Amino acid sequence: MAQIQPQDAKAKSGDELQLVVFNIGPDEFGVEIMNVQEIIRITNITKIPQASGYVKGIINLRGRIIVVINLNVIMGMESKQQNENTRIIVADIGDTVMGFVVDSVSEVIRLPESSVEPAPAVIANKIGTEYVRGVGKMEDRLLILLDLDKILSVKELHNINSISSEVEAAAI
Predict the structure, then answer these.
(1) pTM
(2) Residue 35, in any domain of the structure
(3) Domains in the chain: how many in total?
(4) Mean pLDDT per 10-residue segment, the chain (172 residues)
């Protein structure tokens, strides 16, 4: 019996991306749903003394300590004040589960890969090319697609893992 290779499965799905769409300020972004574990309402976030500016703090998610990141700080963007629409996107980044604070999550969509183009220089320069996957063209709007696996550098990811390990060790 032949095994289906990942690219075969992708081809059969019609080369579509399934994306979680969210906002930071006035801008709309998308990330692949395969990276997203869940989306939760903003909750009480415990600050971590002397943590980097992009680390908002930690939360207890059903007994698991999760580091929460200010996505707008990493991307150098203005964010709205937290309100009832603010969400935390809990995602797998490499071997780490972490949360990303976003202003709101609007929908889950399917986008044909043929509708995705490389990011124009103006977007890549404003945000950073390393984690901008491209721009998705939809009927009346554009969606900046982010690669969550590349949003944090190896050093930043190591810092997040260290924080998670220290907090879990202290909790035992």
Answers:
(1) 0.80
(2) yes
(3) 1
(4) 37 74 92 94 91 90 91 82 94 87 95 88 63 86 88 68 66 58
